[in-house]
Every structure is written in structure tokens, then in C-alpha cells.
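Subject: Sanity check before I submit

Could someone independently write out the C-alpha cells for this chain? I want to compare against mine line by line before I put it in a report. The sequence has 357 residues.
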Amino acid sequence: MEKLLQELAHYRAEIQATQAPDAAALEAFRIRWLGTKGLVKAIMGEMKNVPAEERKAFGQTLNEFKQMAEQHFETLKTALGETAPPPAARSAKSATALDYTLPGDPLTVGSRHPLNLVRDQMISIFKRLGFVVAEGPEIEDDWHNFGAMNLPEDHPARDMQDTFYLRPTAAPTDAQQKWLLRTHTSSVQARVMENQKPPIRVICPGRVYRNETVSARAHCFFHQVEGLYIAENVSFADLKQTLYFFVQEMFGNDVKVRFRPSYFPFTEPSAEMDISCLICKGKGCNICKHSGWVEILGSGMVHPKVLENFGIDPERYTGFAFGMGVERITQLKYQVNDLRLYSQNDIRFLKQFTGVI
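---
Independent answer below. Compare away.
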């Protein structure tokens, strides 16, 4: 103990006598006294050899010695004008420091899904015509999905839907107790007519489900955008002009359009709309089945029976409805030839839409 105190007095005198004329001498002082293998740390380690009754007093002496060494180092550094780390420390740091004069590393930019891109564009186009977005549940009851749309239980059009019915917890007693995954977003139109009086002008985007074999041309789930407009004096001419505007805004003014008579239980009269094939420019290819035309949507005037189902007077109000698949529109816009690509999350496919607006 006495010997250690004598060494401390000797070290204290040596520290106070030390000068640092340059950065190298300052670093040498730091290493000798304050480094990880320096004398201060070594002396602090002698505490384990001090008798227990003397440790408190000796500990204070060691702390004063350590603080004196650190204070002298700061005094030398200030006198030298050294505000940055010593050369050795600066060299070690520079090995891992960023060079701000170099160009920045590129950041990986994500991309929006092509279906979202096209859906949002479709919504934007119809919003300019005064349509508002309406949404509804994907698990739907039989009435809103079929019955309200003029499809009674024995209607043959139900066979076209390939519906996913949900297993009931008890035996159903009527159509309203049957639950299913919606087969079209017409169920959203039904809920709008149920809760809102004319005038009604809505578009209904959403995911729908049908029990179909997954292939390049079909999937068990897909996306639709349906529209509904009900007011006084709405005519088929209004429907045609609305859809002409949509096609021109989505595909350009050079695309040709035609209407073909068709049948849908919830519209009368009904029509399907074709556009000239964007892939072959109307010359004929496997996408348009060598006809030069591609069907993009179904439409028609709302059936009077549908209006009556929701207490809307068909003698006063008329309306039109239309529905189209987002996948089909995306296929034509970006020339995607396999519907499965939309749901496989293949980064190579999705990267093609980086920066697309």
C-alpha cells in the first residue's frame, strides 16, 4: 500500500512535467496514461489488492489521480490547438467514414402494382364525370348479390357465376340467409340504392370471386369497376357518351369503339362494348381471336324490376349501369398476356412499373 502511494506521487510528478509540442507527442501521452493498456487503468486494477477497510480512502486517491491525468491531457490538447481526434484515431475513423464528395448510393425504389395503377386511373376518369366511389363487403348475402339484381334462385344466369358459397352454421330458411363471396360489385350498387335516393352516380371498385380454374385467361379472384347512374331522363345516349369518354381518356382518341346487343338480367336493353385491339391495331391476333376487336365491358339501362326492388319509381327515374374487369383493361394498356402474373408477386414483373403514373 505504501509502495503504491509512492508510485502515484512519482507518476503525478511525471504527468505534470510532460509537454506535448506536437500531435504525435499528445497521442503518445494518451496511449501511455489513458489508453486501454495505460498506466492509469493498470493502477486502478490494484484496488483488488487493497484491504477492505482502506478501499474507500484509496479509491478516492485513485480517482483524483485519474482525473488529474485526464485534465492534463485536455490542457495539452488545448495548448496544441488540437480540436479533432489525434492522427491515429483520425486514420482509423477515416477508414469507415463516408466520403461526402462521392455520388450517393442509389436507393431501391418500390413500384405500384399495375392493377392499382389502372384502377386509380379509371376512378380518376369517372370522378371527372361526377361519379363518387362506393364500397361494400366482399362477403355478401344472396339477396344483395343475386336477388336484388333480378336473379331469382332458379334463374339460369346464376350458373354463369360459379359462386363460392360459405358453409352455413345452420340450415338456411330463405335466400337472405345464404352467404357467399361476391361474384360482382353489383352488390355494392344494390346497397347504395337501398340506402340512397336518386339522383345516384357511383362507381364501385373492388375484388370479386368466382370458382374458375386458374389459367392465363381466368382466375378465381379478380377486380371490377362498376358504375351506376340513376336520375330523371337518363338515356342510353348518356351511357354511350360516358363510355366513349372513358375509352378516349384511358386508351387515346385513335381507338375505335363498337356496341353489341347482349343480355344481362339486371339491365334492359343490354350491350357489350368492344374496342379495336391495341396489340395488333385491329389486324388480328390471338388476344382478339383474330377479329380485331376486344370486349372490355358490359352495360345497359337499369332494369325496372331492379329499381322497384329498392322502392325507386321506374316511371320517374331511369338509369344505366356498366361493369368492367380491371385485369382486362390492364392487359390492354400494358399488354400483359397472363392473368396469373398479377398475383404471383414476381419482382421482375413488378419492377417494370417503377415510375409509372
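---
OP: Matches mine. For the report I'm noting this point. The mean pLDDT is 85.
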